[in-house]
Design a protein that fits this description.
- Residues 19-124 form the Calponin-homology (CH) domain.
- Belongs to the smoothelin family.
- Keywords: Coiled coil, Phosphoprotein.
- This is Calponin-homology (CH) domain-containing protein.
- With 127 residues, this protein is mainly α.
- The protein has a single domain, classed as Calponin-like domain (Actin-binding Protein, T-fimbrin, domain 1, Orthogonal Bundle), CATH 1.10.418.
- It is 53% helix and 0% strand.
- The protein has 6 helices and no strands.
- It has helices at residues 3-8, 18-32, 51-60, 75-88, 97-103, 109-123.
- Helix 4 packs antiparallel against helix 5.
């Protein structure tokens, strides 16, 4: 592709670069979860206790469980609940609870990012 053609290419037709995709997905999560008591500033530590996953699935399937009864200290239970409800709603289980627990307070952002993309694909058309 020559320079002239590339220069004339519109911003809308350029493919997303990984950083843009990451930031766009992070922003989507922040918007969708603005009414939940979770802080989403990254795809690592913010997801470690399972509360962000629970909030995300609850946002789209609110009758599946009582979010207000969850405790951030119950990491295993939160992750099990979120992953189970997500799978029941068509989201492929890309993460394992035990793996999340082994990763501790700083799970691999690429793992979280990839899994959260599945939520986006499943629920992007929901208000």
């Amino acid at each position: 592709m020559d320079q002239t053609h590339r220069a004339g290419q519109s911003q809308a037709t350029r493919p997303f670069n990984p950083s843009t995709m990451k930031n766009a997905l992070l922003r989507w999560c922040q918007i969708k979860l603005e009414n939940y008591p979770v802080q989403i500033t990254n795809f690592s530590s913010c997801w470690a206790d399972g509360m962000a996953f629970c909030a995300l699935i609850h946002r789209f399937v609110p009758n599946s469980f009582d979010f207000n009864k969850l405790d951030p200290k119950n990491r295993r239970e939160n992750l099990e609940l979120a992953f189970r409800v997500a799978e029941q709603n068509g989201i492929v289980p890309l993460l394992e609870v035990d793996d999340m627990l082994l990763m501790g307070d700083r799970p691999d952002w690429k793992c979280i990012f990839t899994y959260v993309q599945s939520f986006y694909k499943a629920f992007k058309d929901h208000l």
